[in-house]
Specification:
Blueprint: E1 2-6, E2 13-17, E3 30-35, E4 42-47, E5 53-58, E6 71-73
The structure holds zinc ion.
Zinc ion binds next to loops.
Length: about 80
């Protein structure tokens, strides 16, 4: 699924590809690391079950709920 959003570091428009197999579907919102190619910073995006972004945080946030957190580079 091709997603559009903004990077919380540089506030520029980013796009990335994500599928359900990229996240831990045992609970939501599911974290994924998004590496912005514009500013080279990595943020944590939290995805819901429809792969919509629920919220996002600066930096790499660990989760107590899962160890499966993938890093996705922006396109
Ligand atoms: Zn950025």
């Amino acid at each position: 699924m091709h997603k559009f959003n903004t990077c919380p570091y540089c506030n520029q428009k980013i796009s990335f590809k994500i599928e359900l197999e990229d996240i831990d579907t045992n609970y939501y919102p599911a974290p994924v690391y998004i590496s912005c190619k514009l500013c080279n910073q990595t943020s944590t995006f939290y995805m819901d079950s429809r792969l919509q972004v629920s919220y996002k945080e600066l930096g790499i946030k660990k989760s107590k709920m899962t160890t499966k957190i993938k890093t996705i580079k922006t396109l």
